[in-house]
Structures are given as C-alpha cells and as structure tokens.
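Dear support,

I submitted the protein below through the web form. The confirmation email said the job was done, but the results page showed an empty box. After a refresh the structure appeared. I'm attaching both so you can tell me whether what I see now is the final result or a partial one.
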Amino acid sequence: MSQGSNDLLIVGTGPAGMTAALYARRLGLNPVVFGDVPGGNLYMIEKINNFPGFMDGVAGTEFGIRLFQQAQIDGAQFTMSRIEKLGYENSLFHCTDSNGLSYTAPAAIMATGRVPVGLSVENSNLKGIHFCSICDGPLYRNKNATLAVIGSTNAAAQHALTLSKIAEKVYLIYRSVRPQMDASHQGLLAGHKNVEIRPGTEVIGYKGLHLIEGLIVRPNNGQTDEIGVDGVFPAIGWQPNTQYLDFPVRMTPDRYLQTDSSLMTSVPGLFAAGDVRDTDLSQVLTACADGARAAKYAAAFLNKHS
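What the results page shows now:
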C-alpha cells in the first residue's frame, strides 16, 4: 500500500534523525521518519554528562523520549517501523516499511547510526556476551557476579561504571598500554575499588560450554592466562548501519558515508547525519547538529529542484 506524498524520508530515530525531523518541520517540510526505538542507541547510555545545559546530566532514555516528543509536537510523522532497504530510481527515494507500507520522496536523510562490534575470537557465540550494560547488567544483580568489559574508550568506561554498581568485581581489559578514554572517565573509575583495570592485555578467547565462564587473555609478556567471569561486555568499536542502502553510494573503507560540506552524499538528494557518516567526532551533541544541518540542506535542495 502506498502512502501520501512526502518530501523527505528520514531513516533513523536516534538524536540525528529526530533532530532532523524537528528542523525539517520547522522549515516547512513534510518528513516521515523510520525507526522503532525513540532515541536509537541512547538507551545504552546511563547518563549523558557532557550535553550543554544539563549540568547534572540526563539519562539517555529520557533524552531520547524528550527528542521524540518534541518532534512529534512539531508534526513529524513517525511510522514506528523499520525498513529493509532504501532504493533510488528516477530521482526519487523509495522504501517499504515493516508494516508493508510504501513511501517515496525526492530527498532522504540517512541517520541510521552504528552498532557495536563483537570480538572475533573462539566461542564468541556463548551466552553471557552483552553489548548494553544498562539493558543486561541487571541480570547479574545480587549474584556476586564477576564481569568484564573489553575496551578502553569512554564507552567502555561507562560500561564499567554502570556494572560496578551491580557486580562484586569488574575487570576493564584492553590491549593498549594507555587508555583512549578522557581524563574525567579515568578519574571516575579510580573511585571504584571493585573495578580492576588490566591494560596491555589482549582477550584471545572466551571459555565455556553454553554460558561464558571465563576469558583467555594474553598480557604483553606473552604468558597466556585465564580470568573467570560470569559475563562480558565488549566495547571495542562500532560499524555503521549502511546496509539499508540499495544503490551505490560513496563510502570510506569502513563503510561510513562520505559527505560534502552540506552533508550530502555522492547521490543527489541523499544526506547523512550522525554516526553513520564519516565524522571526526561521534557524540550526541554532534549528531543533533548534523540532524539540524542535514534538514536545512535538504530543504535547500528541495527548493532548488522544485
């Protein structure tokens, strides 16, 4: 079934997509937004501490819901459904959502973000491997659990801090000698006695039959060792959600969308915003800024080609 006319398709309901929807409405556009999780990956952030104006921080889930409600109030259309593919033909973008409804528009914004990358090691299919400490950490509450976080970024530090309130012991393991997290996160970790940091240590395998029972690690000295754990939370990197695109688009070798100064991709009328594009800073703040700019330039593109 085909829907009414829209001038802009926005794929993604994270900070970039919802800000794009808000600004698109204020610019007089009629956008339709695809995605079924208001806030996208914001639910994985216990508290956003570096967004201007929120001196005491704000829960990621709460911030996502506020963005969603604000865009709704301004009249943005949310399908609360996903798409499998975004196509492009005869200067029109088209898609069918999970409800079986079809949409077309002369412009589109990809704001699909990115997803965590798993560790490619032995037994990586065991149960007990998680990517969201807020979602799955509570499974270990009141169990005297020992948990491990793999990674050294701010995201890894956030996982460790969240889990430190639940587990008896938390290992933060990374193979580099120095962490990639900022000084403020290092300071926060130092205040938690149940967090043990293992720098210069590579995880080379998971141990267990059906459930994870431990990690096989190799410190820089080359002596293979084992660490018993009840659960593990890899935070080693991300990959962009660009699999929705059903036509050629210029990307980096890591498949991030390349954009020009107006956030337009190599396909006329297709813009990218947030973590899915090739950017030097992946933050909630910059995703929101991308969404606003992408909506502005999409409106200019539509005005030029109307």
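Response: this is the final, complete result; the empty box was a page-load delay. The first helix runs from residue 15 to 26.
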